[in-house]
């Protein structure tokens, strides 16, 4: 089974908490803060691996979490960092944010890596908060949460050549002749329900990858048949080889067939019309094919298309086609563009603080303020003073004043209610 779309949830590890500890050793009467920092949480890393061909594994497991960092220890010992989790994906996988549908990263090179969810940072122990005026801080810092998000994985086939055309025009047969691939071949429509890949050897150290894209039909760009599933894979090819039944054996006009398929391509994505395209007039062993070939050449050669006449059944013209494909590939740059939506813009969520007024309530929230809140020991004067200083330096108090807050008004910080005093 060829699985080419998957939705997964990823969650990086939480950073370990810093600890409050004191130095209590013989011959060290002054003691002092001795709490260590927490370890960083593990990242979740995506890695492109050419040894993987489908997204099958992600169909059965849909949630992935990296290891959290350890809490700090006494004697200024750091907690251990959480282990990274590496998810291996096929080369050619497009990763999108599930909420916005924007592209996060395009994994189109073997070995390419990307951190899809960063682990939380370890919190600082109380030893880090000691100052000349605050020599015995009785508080530490909590570790931050790891990033989490739902992502869409979309596999777009990586191939040099894409075989396109209506069902039953001989694409699978041509693939089996040009390469060692063994696609299912039969005389009925939609024999191919998933793309088939093959490697075509031209000469020593000269070869290319060819993909038999399942047969397209009218309305494919709107999802008719399995249209969107099939069209997705065409974007990854460098050139298109358009196979036409020159004999019109199923009562269709070969010229109309070509125009209909290309219309589907450009309606799905206008840039697909810019790809180099070769026309292959197949089934030349059938007598009626000569008339069809003449019509094809008369219509398309004047528009710059190269037309090859072949018979996949008798192998006539197949070698000429193979070398013609190689000649074009040798003279164009490799560019596996997908032409998808714009890349997602990065936002530093950890540092964001939201200050707003809703239904008469003053609200402060955000990842940074949540971390600060849970790091505060409210029964410790030093910790409380540190909390107040930070929210002032971050402009929270000033922004609340602009919203009209007054003495004794309630402020809700991450769900906790506080009274406002200036």
State the assembly state of the protein chains: single chain
- Radius of gyration of CA atoms, rounded to a whole number: 31 Å
Nearest-integer average pLDDT: 84
How many domain regions? 3
Helix content: 10-25%
CATH architecture of the largest domain: 3-Layer(aba) Sandwich
Distance between the termini: 65 Å
Instruction: Strand order, main sheet: write it out.
Output: 10-11-9-12-13-14
**Helical run tally:** 9
The CATH homologous superfamily of the largest domain: P-loop containing nucleotide triphosphate hydrolases
Main β-sheet, in a few words?
6 strands, mixed
- Class inferred from helices and paired strands: alpha/beta
Order of helices and strands: EEHEEEEEEEHEEHEHEHEHEEHHHEE
Give the tally of β-strands: 18
Principal-axes geometry comes out as elongated
Find the CATH topology of the largest domain: Rossmann fold
CATH class of the largest domain: Alpha Beta
């Amino acid at each position: 089974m060829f699985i080419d779309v998957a939705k997964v949830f990823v969650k990086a590890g939480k950073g370990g908490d810093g600890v409050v500890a004191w130095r209590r050793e013989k011959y060290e009467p002054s003691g002092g803060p001795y709490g260590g920092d927490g370890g960083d949480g593990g990242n979740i890393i995506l890695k492109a691996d050419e040894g993987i061909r489908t997204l099958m594994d992600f169909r059965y497991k849909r949630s992935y979490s990296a290891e959290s960092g350890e809490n700090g220890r006494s004697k200024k010992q750091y907690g251990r960092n959480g282990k990274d989790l590496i998810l291996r994906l096929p080369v050619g996988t497009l990763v999108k944010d599930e909420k916005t549908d924007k592209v996060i990263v395009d994994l189109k090179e073997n070995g390419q890596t990307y951190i899809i969810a960063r682990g939380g940072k370890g919190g600082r122990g109380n030893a880090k908060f000691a100052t000349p005026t605050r020599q015995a801080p009785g508080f530490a810092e909590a570790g931050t949460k790891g990033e989490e998000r739902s992502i869409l994985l979309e596999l777009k086939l990586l191939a040099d050549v894409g075989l396109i055309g209506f069902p039953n025009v001989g694409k699978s047969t041509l693939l089996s002749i040009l390469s060692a691939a063994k696609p299912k071949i039969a005389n009925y429509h939609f024999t191919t329900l998933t793309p088939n890949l093959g490697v075509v050897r031209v000469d020593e150290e000269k070869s290319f990858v060819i993909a038999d894209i399942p047969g397209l039909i009218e309305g494919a760009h709107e999802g008719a048949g399995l249209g969107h599933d099939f069209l997705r894979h065409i974007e990854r090819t460098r050139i298109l080889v358009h196979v036409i039944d020159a004999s019109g054996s199923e009562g269709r006009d070969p010229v109309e067939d070509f125009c209909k398929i290309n219309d589907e391509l450009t309606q799905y994505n206008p840039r697909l019309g810019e790809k180099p395209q070769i026309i292959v007039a197949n089934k030349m062993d059938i007598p009626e094919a000569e008339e069809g070939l003449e019509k094809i050449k008369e219509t398309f050669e004047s528009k710059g298309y190269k037309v090859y006449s072949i018979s996949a059944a008798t192998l006539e013209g197949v070698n000429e086609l193979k070398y013609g494909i190689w000649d074009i590939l040798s003279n164009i740059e490799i560019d596996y563009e997908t032409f998808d939506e714009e890349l997602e813009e990065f936002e530093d969520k950890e540092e964001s603080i939201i200050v707003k007024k809703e239904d008469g309530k003053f609200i402060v929230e955000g990842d940074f303020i949540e971390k600060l809140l849970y790091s505060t020991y409210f029964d410790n004067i030093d910790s409380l003073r540190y909390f107040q200083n930070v929210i002032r330096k971050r402009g929270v108090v000033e922004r609340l004043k602009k919203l009209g807050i007054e003495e004794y008004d309630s402020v809700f910080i991450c769900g906790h209610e506080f009274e406002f005093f200036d």
